[in-house]
Design goal:
Elements lengths: L1 E4 L9 H16 L3 E6 L9 H13 L9 E2 L4 H13 L3 E4 L3 H7 L3 E2 L2 E2 L16 E4 L1 H8 L3 E4 L3 E4 L9 E3 L7 H11 L4 E5 L5 H11 L6 E5 L2 E2 L15 H6 L4 H9 L8 E2 L8
Parallel strand pairs: 1-2, 2-3, 11-12
Antiparallel strand pairs: 4-7, 5-6, 7-10, 8-9, 13-14
Bound molecules: glutamic acid (GLU) and zinc ion.
Length: 280
Amino acid sequence: MRTRFAPSPNGPLHLGHAYAALVAHDTAGASGGTFVLRIEDIDGERSRPEMVDESIDDLRWLGLDWDGPAVFQSTRLDSYAAAARRLKALDLLYPCTCTRAQIAAAAQSHGPDGPIYPGTCRHRDVDPANAAWRLDMAKAMALTGPLVWRDVEAGPQPATPQAFGDVVLVRKDLPASYHLAATLDDATDVVSLVTRGMDLFAASSVHRLLQALLDLPVPEWLHHPLLLEADGRKLAKRRGAPSLADRRRAGEDGKALADALRSGILPAGISLSQGLHHGP
Ligand code: GLU
Ligand code: ZN
């Protein structure tokens, strides 16, 4: 079995990342499996190279080790482009030039990722030169038929990717969106157990659909609880959650912090969301 931790290097890692990394690492360790570190650095605008080195130092400070060298999404752009060509050949993608503001103004409903795209460009003649490419969700689901995916704690889940509407798979500026890149990479990295936070539970339905469309192997999933602020919101650097690098530089013992998180001892004011999975 293989798990992975897949941080995006667009900011410092914080305690929530430490928890996620521990879940993936320890779950692999518990069954003699393999733990992969994947750096999700395709977002050139937001990714910062110095964050990659910092993150690697943070993980080592926590006492974590991974199998083989870290892998980088930025080296895999060709595989994303190839998958997009395949979906276009199936006539499942269409170009969209709508702005965020236009979508927000026209949206009738909200999905797990914000306003649901109202389909404005689906049957329009759009210049593909400067467009994002969206998945025609209804068409894709009709092609695959009903799908199921399995979370090891929550059990079998009927896939409901329609909750996201026509998701972007190819961004204007990049050959893949998160959904496409992460799904392809989990196949490339031969991940058999996708471990990540409960905040991405719904997204797994989209990934299951992409696996069916692209004939990719289907892993199992483990969605762990999230570390929450006192007000119940998810830890986020923008709200000043201390970074792991700050703690490391202040001389804190990273292995002791990792063990505390493992035993459910959390810093003051931080709690764990209700989740199906208890402890890394
Ligand atoms: N790179 C994503 C993040 O940092 C995680 C993706 C995943 O685990 O599927 O939120
Ligand atoms: Zn559009």
